[in-house]
Amino acid sequence: MTSETADANQRTVARERRHLLHGLGVVTARPPAIEYGTGSRVVDAAGREYLDLFAGAGRCVLGHGDQGFAAALADQAGRLAVTRHPSSRRAAFGEALAGVAPEGLTHLSLFSTGGEAVDAAVRIAREATGRRGVVVFDGSFHGRSSGVAGLTDGRWLGGGAGDPEVLRCPFPSLLDDAPGDRLAEALDAVTGALRQPGADVAAVLVEPVQGTNGNRPAAPGFLAGLAAVAKAHGALVIADEVLTGFGRTGRLFVSEAADHGVDLMVTGKGMANGFPVAGVLARPELVERAARRYPGFLSSTYGANPLAVAASSYVLDTLLRRGLVERAGRFGAAWAERLRSGLADGPLDVTVHGGALMLGIEVGADLSAPQWAALDQRLAEHGLLVGRSGRVLRVNPALTIDESEAEEAADRLAAALAVDGSELEDRRHDR
Predict the structure, then answer these.
(1) Rounded distance, CA 205 to CA 354, Å?
(2) Cβ(76)–Cβ(92) under 8 Å?
(3) To 10 degrees, what angle do helices 324-343 and 403-417 make?
(4) pTM for this predicted structure
(5) Tens digits of residue pLDDT in 37-69
(6) CB–CB of 201/169 below 8 Å?
(7) What number of CA atoms fall less than 13 Å from residue 79's CA on the CB side?
(8) What is the DSSP letter of 294?
(9) Which of 63, 281, 285, 360 could connect to 400 by a Cys-Cys bridge, CB 3.0–4.6 Å?
């Protein structure tokens, strides 16, 4: 990155930081200022191009600059931007989503963020069961607001006091050394939590793939086993599919599997290609009691606004019409193998895990914080935008990433990661 390029970006970054404390997380200490994009390519303030392999933490499923998406929003904005009254477009979207949702999840409530939706799902479960406890898992991320912070693993929030109504259990992953053993231990832990005197558990809340924890997939059989244990103890199952939903794993929803026994499902991120919207799909009998007792129980100021519905409708229609969900599974599997072969035997001891277009690239080398900062910067200098959770680079590109973009990304990743830890020098403060 030339000094001229760096200066153009840093001037924009400095202007923004002078007045905004927005909490937008970026990996690099000297981030580029992104101005526009097309597909999986974005351009910074100095005109330099990057391959965006993170897509706004997986939100931008259709890629940047989708003109049909822009037209759908513009058309709706020109007709009606705000109303709290029923509308035919909202009714049509509810019908369409219920028609492809996991069996039995036919009641839809719309919100603005994933955290808001998780909070609503937990409130529904508590009201439906008359219980308060919630079982969650190590490494989980369910939001940062006060209503859900206690459900999120403290490592993502800087620690803090736990919630006495939240019981935390180990998360068995396919990546564990002995996944079968870890699976049995985790299910035993959940059973113990459900039987704990005074636990009074309303629901078990689980991510099928832990995104913030490095795109870690659950161990095979865990979600089905979890559902069986929960049902045996009268607890509901809430699937947090904010990250996995809308095609990223090669299925529209992981919870489609009948043996997962999901009672409520939370969606977000890819639901509207980055437009702020999230949802809770639930069994109708679970919300009826709360709706009767508390009018406005699921009210949300911006939830279900016409613009959010237009964006969500366009995304769902496009995913299904273009076969992007199935493509994500096929294309992602082939690309993951390409990445594995291209990154094998490198000096940083890299492994690739995950499936479809929700991948993790784990660095096995023991790097110091300054070396990690240098590696983050090196990736940006090779024209790559990725996420990072600890030792794992998170790769969640648009579902529309094409063959040439994916091949170019694989070459750039191989070049960026072909460096020994001793060669990494922290240049965060270079000008």
Answers:
(1) 21
(2) no
(3) 30
(4) 0.94
(5) 999 999 999 999 999 999 999 999 999 999 999
(6) no
(7) 14
(8) S
(9) 63
With tokens 């693993």, the residue in question is: 153
Nearest residue to 350 via CA among 264, 420, 273, 400: 420
Contact residues for 398 (Cβ-Cβ < 8 A; gap 6+): 39, 40, 52, 55, 60, 61, 62, 63, 64
- pLDDT value of position 288: 85
Chain segment 322-380, per-residue pLDDT in tens: 999 999 999 999 999 999 999 998 999 999 999 999 999 999 999 999 999 999 999 99
- Look at residue 422 in the predicted model and tell me its pLDDT: 86
Average pLDDT over residues 282-300: 86
Which one, of 222, 203, 63, 69, lies nearest residue 131 by Cα? 203
| Token pair recorded at residue 359 | 């991948």
Q: How confident is the model over 297-321, as pLDDT tens digits?
A: 888 999 999 999 999 999 999 999 9
Query: Which residues lie below 8 Å from residue 93, measured CB to CB, with a gap of 6+?
Result: 309, 312, 313, 316
Taking the C-alpha atoms of residue 379 and residue 284, their distance in angstroms, rounded to an integer, is: 47
**Residue 112 to residue 275: CA distance in whole angstroms:** 9
The encoded tokens of residue 73 equal 């929003």
The length of the chain in residues reads 431
**In which element (H, E) is residue 76 found?**
helix 67-79
Q: Residue type at 184?
A: A
Question: Within a 10 A sphere around the Cβ of 197, how many other Cβ atoms?
Answer: 5
Asked if the model's pLDDT at residue 431 lies above 50, the reply is no
Q: Report residue 198 as tokens.
A: 């005074």
In degrees and rounded to multiples of 5, residue 298 shows phi and psi of: -110, 25
Go through 70-92 and write b for each residue having 16 or more CB atoms within 10 A of its CB, e for each that does not.
eebbeebeeeeeeeeeeeeebee
Distance CA 91, CA 86 (A): 8
Q: How far apart are the first and last CA of the chain?
A: 10
Distance set, CA 179 to CA 32, 175, 250 (Å): 39, 7, 22
SS3 content of the chain, % helix, strand, coil (to 5): 45, 20, 40
The residues, any chain, with a CB within 8 Å of residue 18's CB and separated by 6 or more, are: none
Q: What is the Cα–Cα distance from 277 to 164, expressed in whole angstroms? A: 30
261 with 227: CB under 8 angstroms?
yes
User: Nearest 5 degrees, angle CA 60-CA 271-CA 217?
Assistant: 80
